[in-house]
Structures are given as C-alpha cells and as structure tokens.
Design brief:
Blueprint: H1 3-6, H2 9-24, H3 39-62, H4 69-93, H5 102-126
Helix pairs in contact: 2-3, 3-4, 3-5, 4-5
Length: 127
C-alpha cells in the first residue's frame, strides 16, 4: 500500500470523527457531566491532542523516522489548529444546533500544542 495512503487513513478517520462529534451531533444529545469542570473543553483538548499526536506519529513513520521539522510541525500543529478554527466557524455560520466558542478553539490549540511539544521532546531524546 502506498505509504501516503497508509499513514493518512487514521488521521483522516480521526478528523472525520471530530467533525461528526463537533458539528453533526446536536449539543442536546451530549450527555451531562458532573459540575465543576468544563467537560466540553476537556473533550476538545483530548480530540485535538489525539489528532495531532496521530498525525505527528504517522508523519514520522512515513518519512523513515527523519521528518523535516518544519513540515512535521506544519502537519501536526498548524493544520489541526486551522481545522479547529474551521469547525468553530462552521458551527457559528452553518450548523444551527451548535454554537461556536473561542474557548473551544483555545482548547483545540492547547491540545495540538501539547501533543507537538511532547513529540518534539521525544524526537530529541531519540536523536
């Protein structure tokens, strides 16, 4: 199987799952969580941490464990951050059952950023 396809399948599936969870499922259908913590922000952080981690791992494997650092950061951090912003815009202007929040996008950015920093630390230790 072509390595581009092989290493793109999981990130694409995860990206599609994030889209479904954040845009297509009505917020009324999301179960309530215990008070005291903004669970939706935790969910956004976790989704985008996972997305960035999977992208970075697959990009690392696709490029024989020697990825270009700038391209690795582009695909693992910049693309997910813009994807999170796009989702918030779609929620605001297209999906009436959802609402856009700056806090959600900040949680997306934080998740992607932490995954990227951890990946860079791990890569530095491997070299």
């Amino acid at each position: 199987m072509n390595s581009l396809i092989r290493y793109s399948i999981l990130p694409l599936i995860l990206g599609l799952l994030i889209f479904i969870l954040t845009c297509l499922i009505s917020s009324d259908n999301i179960p309530g969580m215990p008070e005291g913590l903004q669970w939706d922000k935790v969910a956004h952080f976790g989704m985008f941490f996972s997305l960035s981690a999977v992208i970075m791992y697959d990009y690392y494997k696709m490029h024989s464990k020697a990825p270009s650092r700038s391209r690795w950061i582009f695909w693992g951090l910049i693309v997910p951050v813009f994807y999170g912003g796009l989702i918030e815009l779609l929620q605001k202007y297209y999906f009436a059952s959802r609402s856009a929040e700056w806090g959600d996008w900040i949680a997306d950015i934080a998740g992607s950023l932490i995954a990227t920093l951890l990946a860079l630390i791990i890569l530095k230790k491997k070299r």
